[in-house]
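Homework-ish question, so no full write-ups if that breaks the rules, but can someone show me the predicted structure for this set?
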Amino acid sequence: MQSNPSTPAMEVLVVDDDVDIREALSDTLEHRGYAVVTARNGREALDFLRSRRPPAVILLDLMMPVMDGYEFLEARQSDPALSAIPVVIISAGQGVDRARLGTSAPVLSKPVRLAELLATFRQLQASGGLA
Amino acid sequence: MKREDDIEPSAPPGPAAPIIGQSSVSEAHFRLLVESVRDYAIFLLDPSGHVATWNAGARAIKGYAPEEIYGKHSSVFYTPEALADNAPERLLQAAASAGRVEEEGWRVRRDGTRFWADVVITALRDPNGELVGFAKVTRDLTSRKEAEERVKQTEEQLAATLHSIGDGVLATDEHGRITVINGVAQRLTGWSEEDALGRDIHEVFDIVNEETRQPAANPVTRVLAEGIVVGLANHTALIARDGTECPIADSGAPIRDTEGKIRGAVLVFRDVGEERRAEEVLRQSEEKLKLMIASVQDYAIFMLDADGRVVSWNPGAERIKGYAASEIIGSSFSKFFTPEDLAAGKPERELEQARQHGRFEDEAWRVRKDGSRFWANVAISAMRDGTGQLVGFTKVTRDLTERRRMDRERVRLAQAQEAVRLRDEFISIASHELRTPLTALQLQLQGVLDRLETLDRSLAAKVEKAMRAGHRLTSLIETLLDVSRIASGRIQLSLEAFDLAEAARDVCERVDEAARHARCDLSLRAEGPLIGRWDRLRVEQILTNLLSNAFKYAAGTPVTVSIRRDGDTAVLEVCDRGPGLNDRDLPRIFGRFERASSLGYGGMGLGLYITAQVTEAHGGTLSARNLPQGGAGFTVRLPLEPPPKAPPDASAQAEPSSS
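A: Not a homework solution, just the prediction itself:
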């Protein structure tokens, strides 16, 4: 796979407390032509999002210290600028509390398959993004 | 009784006053008669009232010797009050005018003592009618009056006593006619004293047998006939004059005079209605107490007499000590002690303690009927009656070994629950922990593959194999965790409404690569959206599992996913055109650790098991069949609405969730 030089790279914000996952995701996605930025937890993600132009999609882990995925989503919901950015949730634990998510964002369980991930991105693009 | 002032002239006038001198009896005889009468004072007064004659009776009654009184005025016989009232003169004048006057009143003796007298004064006239004097006849009524007084007092006392008695009292004469009826008797019989006196007792004391309603024998009858004390039979009711009834108890006795002759009967009776009610209340509360003790199974509650012998037993005692009531009642409670305690005289000491201090409590070994020992808590209390007299002891024994066992079990249960909780926590943590490095692993491998694919096909192939192994590892972990969760009964569904067709599309896209790899031509057939409430992740898991099975066992054949609606059920089918399933395996394929025997594909055969469990958790069914056109078909039926609450897993117990 090569990145398509004619189109600007879609930016993906990866939010996960595990450094290996952040690196692996960055690597693989970048190799597929995406631009990747990372954050270690919900708080860092919020700070990042509020300081610059929004990414195309957020890959969000749920179990993180400082501010977990649920809390991040809560904060995102109250901010119209942020809630416009589509989110894909990648979760390692079982029993994702759908009700608490407060969103109908797709949920992929770890270990995430790249193919799945990319398919999900395409779906989001096709449907114009989900709030 | 006449008061001194009540002078009653005799009416009608009696025979003419005796005229002296006309009698045919010789004067001498007459004088003798008069003189010798001792019971009556008979003497003459001259017209002015002075004493002219005196007889023995006058001497005896009034105390004067003749020579002391001759010529004295008869007013000396009167009391000071009478004198102040001019009674003597008045009497004489009354006698003079009426011819005769009689009165009762106090007179005074020579020694100053008084006596109650009956006095008749007769005026004596000569043939010309001239008053020649008065004849006075005086009778001493004192003793009779005193006797009358005493009788009156006694009567009054008796009457007071009678009316104070709380019981009814009826007395009769020897013919059974009522002579006495006290207030209570009047009230209970409904007869007033006025009406009752003189009536036959049977009339007033109307009694029947409470049960047979037959007239009951009146004890007075027997008392009068046989002269013995008689009691009423039980269950006798007295019927009052107005018809009201009350249950009574009584006894009758003869009234004898000083010679022992029966002069009548006395009947004493009382209303036992109140008594019976009180007895009933007492009986009921005793009944309740007995029931309560009888129903206590965990404590031996029983009574001992003052010497320590068992007099009562309850089911708890039977259970704890092993003796039936019939076996132990009458035996000494020392039977329950160990030989060592017996030798040391413990039973006696315990009783003594209870006697002295009212209570004794201890924890010690006791022996059951079968000789086995148990550690007991015993409490013995002294029971005393109203006068403080010791009547026995109560004993309460608790088998502490039981309690200990229960305590241990409770601890074990708590420990088991804790262990389960820890395991759940572990599962939760483990699943998270394991997936994290796996994610990185997979992604890195993927990254390597990306770069190698165009550069070095053979290396890329190796990486692909590594990745597939990684996928299997992932699957394995998933399966392990799932099974563990199922075993603990904690499949928790997070339900949401979604379109099954859409979810199926998502899954098909995701497994597209695997499908291509297995050379399975995957197609999805759905009539339209099918909205229901399920756990999306789990439903996708079901479909993914069925599809991966199809890719495993029916590689190279077309695989079809179809979604349709059947009433209020969603039907999801995965069909392939592979070798199909062995008929032998069909019944077992959804069990744990089962897999279709023919293929050597690695894996623990848990996929279908989990799929089946998850389906069931939704209240749905999973079935498998061989298709007529060849291949296997798996059908999942899911109710559109989930069952009201998470259905119980057969093997599980409810456990607190750890989220």
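Now go work out the reasoning yourself. Hint: The radius of gyration of chain B is 62 Å.
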